[in-house]
Write a structure and sequence with these properties.
disordered N terminus; ten-stranded mixed beta sheet; alpha/beta; about 50% helix; 4 domains; chloride; elongated; Rossmann fold; 37 helices; Amino acid/polyamine transporter I; three-stranded antiparallel beta sheet
């Protein structure tokens, strides 16, 4: 080791005393330095290691310590290289920040990517505050307090904020369980619950964000037209109803203009949106602080906002100047403007006035009594109104008489009918926006710490602000003013602005800019969310929206977002749009909670969140609250939203989104499957529950194509998508060498299964002999109670002409194995003539020849086939065979009764087979069969010819490694050489053999079996020659293997002249019962 350490550095050469003129030693040292000891294949140059040349030299010694692993370093990199790649990895999302940098291609090339450096405050807390605080706080919270009262308003706020807090806890657990790239909530749900749920909820979240932009724009336009520049209104109404519709039209026109301008800003550059975000957030904070300052100031100096009351009714204050019926002008009492509104022109004594106006007094009360006024007692409980109902103050004296309808516009009235559930739907959007932190995970210095802390702190802050605002509004503002949505009673001032300090304009301007900023943020985020969904390619028709400008800006997604937002603008009512986006956000939050609960309960190994303060019970509570809030706020919107999500789910499922994201639903399926398998393992299925669970043995050609795809067609027709289907095949060879070939074969079979609509599993095994591979499949396929009970395999066509006897030997061996395993067996003969799934039999018969009873398979199979549309219109006929000593009439009656009890409709026929002498044809067929077998047994090759033939076989197998189920299998060494006729023999030898065979058959049992086969075939062909399908009992193979070839001949004779035959062997148990 010491010598080697000296050798590894040129600087240490001086420490050695080299013998002079020792040429060989110098040469050895030179070679040592030029070609270092080892295999010479250093892995420092592998693509996994990006070290410099100096680093390579430094790591030489280290790599020699890894000589045992050097051949695998390209697929199993060193720990040091892995860690260096992990450190250099960045999870910056394809979001706004990248698009800013990529707007100039040249600039982006010059820029070096910045490492994430945002902390909890700037990266999560403040963005969440900006997204949560919004239009509802400034435009609707006072109205909600007035309608619902302080107690119910606190309940509404508590419900919504509790729901978002529980969702934030679940979201924190998911967000800290690894990296959350672009897409935020969509990514979390899709990777936790799978592509179907992810796509459905992702689109719902996208629609919610899009409608949120419409809501913010409508809020901004409402502030603009109601409080900032009322003169900008284009449409004007002449009556109260007309003014409402005119206002909606104004909202539509200005909303569309504002949406267009915002879309242009987002399209031109996101950098402007991001730069203005801080300004918008400052507006929100200043506005909220001014509310608190005004509330505190109102304790000593309440602001002056008098309200004019006629009786107990609230008057619209901007319609007149003085709150009195008369005014004194130069010691003369003259009618006021208020009088002129309610009375016809004329002198005061003879004027015709409104009855209510005459009988009730005009009073003026303080609109903002202040924090110490005790008004909180009056505002404690709700006062819900119907549409058009006038705002009245309880406690004021009033003579209740009907006034003239013409004067209705003088009163402040409710524009919509209100209820607790409606107010929940309107308020909930002000609790959304909790995903802002998770969406920025790529920009955070420590996302797994910042996201939980920042989000939960933001929700806590906003919840406290909302709860305290409810109490402050109820304690400071008069009830009729709170119920006045648009501030008509306080000279068209924003109600929350009347409380603020130093001026109402602080709130008006601040809320306007905050709503505009929130709208821009929504218009920026929604297209990127749609782009993330489109790029995942789980919804094909959205694929176009994954493209955009060269710098990645989602142009097409922005266009679609603008069109959908325009639909919200055309609704034109903030109170109508808010419940719509509440549904979509609630559905998104519901599935975030579900994802966390599923992952927690499944205890998947990858579920290791850094955020520890979560529990599945909290997630289920949050999920239940989301569902409850959906139906509380609007049950019909909830049903529509769930219907949309359900249709998207089924569409993605139908399209077959083959995405493996390690989602929780897959884990849930695994747990459910495990539970079901353990339940199935309790005992064998009852006869009533028995159905053929198929193992289909397929034969592949040299190109790995399925040789007889109609076997799969038949399986799909028999199963009709129910039960278990396993498709198996065998590749001959060595597993280590044939692994890639096995995978290719599996893929080919899966493709064919998809074409033939076979729902099941595929299993390909590699074995040295095909016969052994089939035995492995029969023994090991399936799991627990979900194992096959029926084997389907093809007929070995051309076995007579084949020079290789292994084809039919493998077939017979499989028959024996299925019998030994107590499995049923089906052999479709002439399977290429079987119908495809697109064919329809409009008539014809399915004939069952019930020769022996082996469990009732022959009765059950036609019934199952008739469930498929191909065979549905075929009629079923059952034939049974009566011998001389049987009562055929009684047999027919008994069989009809049996079928009636089985609830199977079929014609019954009993065929009598009389004892007859064995025909010459039978002897001839038996003799031909024995002659062929005898010739093959007696013809043996000489030793040299046998070796030469073995070499030919070996060469042929070296070219074709692909094994089939019934041929191309290497024989056992101990077996006799292949039994085949050598065509180079002389003519005399076969002639002598043939002459020796011109005798009667030596085995009389063969004659009897051939006689049975011939007689049965005559009867079957006579009765069923035109049948669509013939089902027949399959005789068992002989116990003595010497008669295997004769057995194949018997089966050939039995099925001669029939187009489609299904040979059936039972598994040794009853599969059909008459009992319910």
């Amino acid at each position: 080791m010491e010598i080697m350490s000296h050798f590894t550095s040129f600087e240490n050469l001086d420490n050695f005393d080299l013998p002079k003129n020792n040429f060989f030693l110098l040469l050895t040292l030179s070679c040592f330095f030029l070609f270092p000891i080892g295999h010479g294949n250093h892995k420092e140059d592998s693509p996994f290691l990006n070290s410099a040349h100096a680093a390579n030299k430094k790591n030489d010694f280290y790599d020699r310590n890894l000589a045992l692993f050097e051949e695998e370093l390209d697929i199993r990199p060193k720990v040091s290289s892995l860690l260096s790649r992990l450190v250099n990895y960045t999870n910056i999302t394809q979001g706004a920040k990248e698009h800013e940098e990529e707007e100039s291609a040249e600039a982006s090339r010059r820029k070096t990517p910045k490492s994430p450096n945002m902390g909890t405050l700037m990266g999560v807390y403040l963005p969440c505050l900006q997204n949560i605080f919004g239009v509802i706080l400034f435009l609707r919270l006072t109205w909600i307090v007035g309608m619902a009262g302080i107690m119910q308003s606190l309940l509404i706020v508590l419900m919504c904020c509790s729901c978002t807090m529980l969702t934030a806890i679940s979201m924190s657990a998911i967000a800290t369980n690894g990296v959350v790239p672009a897409g935020g909530a969509y990514f979390m749900i899709s990777r936790s619950l799978g592509p179907e749920f992810g796509g459905a909820v992702g689109l719902c979240f996208y629609l919610g964000t899009t409608f949120a932009s419409a809501m913010y724009i409508l809020g901004a336009i409402e502030i603009f037209l109601k409080y900032l520049v009322p003169q900008a209104a284009i449409f004007h109404g002449t009556d109260p109803l007309g003014s409402d519709s005119a206002m909606l039209n104004n909202m539509r026109v200005y909303g569309s203009i504002c949406l267009t301008l915002m879309a242009v800003v987002v399209f031109v550059g996101v950098r402007y949106v991001n730069k203005l975000a801080s300004l918008f957030l400052a507006c929100v904070i200043i506005s909220i602080v001014s509310i608190y300052a005004g509330a505190i100031k109102s304790m000593t100096h309440p602001p002056e906002f008098p309200i004019c009351m006629l009786g107990n009714r609230t008057l619209v204050r901007d319609r007149f100047d003085v709150c009195a019926k008369t005014v004194i002008q130069g010691n003369i009492t003259v009618p006021s403007q208020l009088w002129e509104r309610f009375c016809l022109p004329g002198n005061m004594s003879s004027a015709q006035c409104d009855d209510y106006f005459i009988q009730n007094n005009v009073t003026e009360i303080q609109g903002i009594p202040g924090l110490g006024s005790g008004i909180i007692r009056e505002n404690m409980w709700g006062n819900y109104l119907q549409k058009g109902e006038i705002l009245e103050k309880a406690g004021l004296q009033s003579v209740d008489t009907h006034g003239a309808l013409d004067n209705f516009g003088m009163y402040v009235s409710a524009d919509i009918a209100t209820s607790f559930t409606l107010l929940v739907g309107i308020f909930f959007p002000s609790a959304t926006g909790i995903m802002a932190g998770s969406n920025r995970s790529g920009d955070l210095r420590d996302a797994q710490k910042s996201i939980p802390v920042g989000t939960i702190l933001a929700i806590t802050t906003t919840s406290l602000v909302y709860l305290s605002s409810v109490v402050l509004f109820g304690s400071c503002i008069e009830g009729v003013v709170l119920r006045d949505k648009f501030g008509d009673a306080v000279r068209k001032n924003l109600v929350v602005g009347t409380l603020s300090w130093p001026s109402p304009w602080v709130i008006v301007i601040g809320s306007f800019f905050s709503t505009v900023g929130a709208g821009l943020q929504s218009l920026t985020g929604a297209p990127r969310l749609l782009q993330a969904i489109a790029k995942d390619n789980i919804i094909p028709f959205l694929r176009v929206f994954g493209h955009g400008k060269t710098n990645g800006e989602p142009t097409w997604a922005l266009l679609l977002t603008g069109l959908i937002a325009e639909l919200g603008i055309l609704i034109a009512s903030l109170d109508m749009v808010a419940p719509i986006l509440s549904m979509f956000f609630l559905m998104c939050y519901l599935f975030v909670n579900l994802a966390c609960a599923v992952q927690t309960l499944l205890r998947t190994p990858n579920w290791r969140p850094r955020f520890k303060y979560y529990h599945w019970a909290l997630s289920f509570l949050g999920m239940s609250m989301c569902l409850a809030l959906m139906f509380i706020s609007s049950w019909y919107y909830a049903i529509v939203a769930m219907g949309i999500a359900g249709m998207i789910y089924k569409y993605i499922e139908y399209q077959g989104a083959e995405k493996e994201w390690g989602d929780g639903i897959r884990g849930l399926s695994l747990s459910a499957a495990r539970y079901a398998l353990l339940r199935l393992e309790v005992g064998p299925p009852h006869t009533k529950n028995w159905r053929p669970q198929l193992l289909v043995l397929l034969k592949l050609d040299e190109d790995l194509h399925v040789k007889y795809p109609r076997l799969l067609t038949f399986a799909s027709q028999l199963k009709a998508g129910k039960g278990l289907t396993i498709v198996g095949s065998v590749i001959q060879g060595n597993f280590l060498d044939s692994y890639g070939e096995m995978q290719a074969a599996e893929q080919a079979i899966k493709n064919m299964m998809e074409i033939e609509r076979v729902k099941g599993f595929c299993q390909v095994v590699v074995a040295s002999k095909v016969r052994e591979g089939i035995v492995h499949l029969i023994q090991s396929c399936g799991l627990g109670g979900m194992k096959h009970n029926t084997v389907v395999m093809g007929w070995p066509y051309g076995w007579r002409q084949s020079e290789d006897p292994r084809a039919w030997k493998t077939f017979i061996n499989t028959v024996r194995c299925t019998t030994a395993a107590h499995l049923a067996l089906m052999v479709p003969k002439n399977v290429s003539f079987y119908p495809s799934n697109h064919e329809r039999f409009t008539d014809g018969n399915i004939d069952v020849w019930w020769i022996v009873h082996d469990g009732g398979m022959l009765m059950l199979l036609p019934f199952l086939l008739k469930q498929h549309k191909v065979w549905r219109k075929c009629k079923m006929r059952i034939f049974t065979v009566a011998q001389m000593d049987d009562n055929s009439i009684q047999m027919k009656k008994d069989l009809a009764t049996f079928l009636y009890q089985l609830r199977i409709e079929a014609e019954v026929e009993v065929v009598e087979m009389h004892d007859s002498d064995i025909s010459a044809y039978t002897y001839e067929r038996t003799l031909m069969m024995e002659q062929r077998s005898q010739m093959l047994r007696q013809m043996r090759l000489s030793s040299a010819e046998r070796q030469r033939e073995a070499q030919l076989v070996k060469d042929r197998h070296s070219l074709v490694r692909m094994g089939s189920l019934y041929s191309d299998e290497e024989e056992e060494v101990v077996e006799a050489p292949p039994e085949k006729v050598q065509m180079t023999w002389t003519k005399e030898r076969p002639t002598l053999l043939c002459l020796s065979f011109l005798l009667q058959p030596r085995d009389q049992s063969n004659v009897r079996r051939m006689h049975t086969a011939v007689k049965l075939n005559e009867v079957i062909v006579n009765r069923s020659h035109d049948a669509r399908l013939v089902l027949l009992n399959m005789p068992g193979p002989p116990r003595n293997a010497d008669g295997d070839e004769n057995y194949m001949e018997f089966l050939e004779v039995l099925t001669e002249g029939l187009e489609r035959v299904l040979l059936v062997r039972g598994g040794g148990r009853e599969v059909i019962t008459i009992y319910s």
